[in-house]
Amino acid sequence: MRLVIDFQGSKNKSNNVLTASNPDWKYTIATGILVVAMVVPQLSDWVESQQFVKYLQTRVGSLPKTTGASISRIAFPTVANAPVTSGFGWRQHPITGERKFHTGIDFAASLGAPIYATDAGIVEFAGEKGGYGNTVIVKHTSVSTLYGHASKLYVTTGQRVARGQMIAAVGSTGMSTGPHLHFEVRVNDKPQNPRPYLQHTAANSYSPRMRAFLATIRWAETGTSGSLSYRKLVFNGTFNDFSTHPRIKQCAPINGKRVCSTAAGAYQMLDKSWYDLQPKLNLTNFSPASQDKMAVEYIRRNQAIADVEAGNLDAALQKLARVWASMPYNNYNQNAKTLEQWRTYYQQQLAYRG
Length: 354
Ligand SMILES: [Zn+2]
What we know:
- The protein is an alpha+beta fold.
- It has helices at 25-36, 41-48, 50-60, 194-203, 208-222, 271-281, 288-301, 305-309, 313-320, 339-353, and strands spanning 6-7, 84-86, 89-92, 99-102, 105-108, 114-116, 121-128, 134-139, 143-150, 152-153, 160-161, 166-169, 180-187, 190-192, 250-254, 257-261.
- The protein folds into 3 domains: 1-61, no CATH class; 84-197, Distorted Sandwich (Glucose Permease (Domain IIA)); 202-353, Lysozyme.
- The strands form 4 sheets. Strands 2, 5, 7, 8, 9, 11, 13 and 14 form an 8-stranded antiparallel sheet that branches. Strands 1-16-15 form a 3-stranded antiparallel sheet, with no helix packed on it. Strands 6-12-10 form a 3-stranded antiparallel sheet, with no helix packed on it.
- Helix 6 packs across helix 7 (288-301).
- The two termini are 27 Å apart.
- Mean pLDDT is 79; it is low at 6-74.
- The structure holds zinc ion.
- This is M23ase beta-sheet core domain-containing protein.
- InterPro entries: Cell_wall_metabolism_enzyme, Dup_hybrid_motif, Lysozyme-like_dom_sf, M23ase_b-sheet_dom.
- Keywords: Signal.
C-alpha cells in the first residue's frame, strides 16, 4: 500500500489511493456462479434454472481456464466454468419424474472433462455404484466426497490422492440423462449441502499465477513473501495479534519528524482498507487468509484479475501502481522495486508454484 502518513498533531490528508469499485463483469459472473450464488439459498433456484445456466455459458466462455492447469492446487471438483444444473434438495427426478431428494450438486461438463479431488484423502471406493454409475468416494477426515456418473476412473480403492488430483473423467453412467458430474459431500456418511464446502475450498484455491503474484507483492512490500510477511509492521518489527491490526498506528522518527501509519501485514493494508473491506468480504480478523482476500479484492477493483491470470505482469502492475507503492509506474518515491526486480521475483515464484 501507499504509505499514508499522519504527522502527529496535524493530520496530513492524503488522496484515497483506491479507485472506485468498477467490477470486471466476466470475473464477477464466473466466480459468482461457482462460489457466491451457490451459498445463498434464496438464489439457488434462480442460479440453477436452465435459463441462467445458458446465460452464464455465453458469458464465461472467454475466461482463461486457470484452474485445471496444475495438479494439487485445485479445490473445485471439475472444470472451472462448469455450470450447476441441479442443486442439493428436493426435486422432480429427471428420469423417473418422482419427487426425490437430490443428495448432491450436478455440474454440466463435457464427456471426458476432468474430475478433481477437492481435497487430499484416501479413495474409499472406486467402481460401479448403482444409479451413481462409475463412482469415486474420497475419504478426507470425517468428511468424504463422492463423484458420480464418471466415464473413466483413474484411481483405485485404498489409493492416496492429493488435493486437485484428477481422479476420474466426466461421463453419463448410471441413472443419467447426459454427461455431468454428480458431486456429494458427506459428513459421517450423511450427504450435506456441498455449497458451504465449495465456498470454503474455492476461497482457498487461487491459481498458481495469482499465488505467485500475491507472493511478489508481499516480497515487494515487506521484503519477504513467507509467513512472517503477514505479521510485518510498517516501520519495523512484527505483530502477533490478528484481531487488532491494521487498526493500530506505529510511529517512528523519519527525517527528524515523528510519523505514524497503520500500514500492516503482507500487503501493508491501512486501517481504512480494513474498515472498507471487512464488512464487504465478511472478514473476522486480519489473518493471512483475510489479507490475501483483501489484496485480491484490490486486484479485482482495478480490473487486473484477468491480467494476473493471463500472466501479464506488466499490465497488472500498471493497473495496480496506485494501490501499492512498491510497484513501478507510480511516483510515490517510496522505494518502489523496478520492473526488472518484479519480473525476476515473480518468475521465481511461478516456477516454484507452477
Ligand atoms: Zn446428481
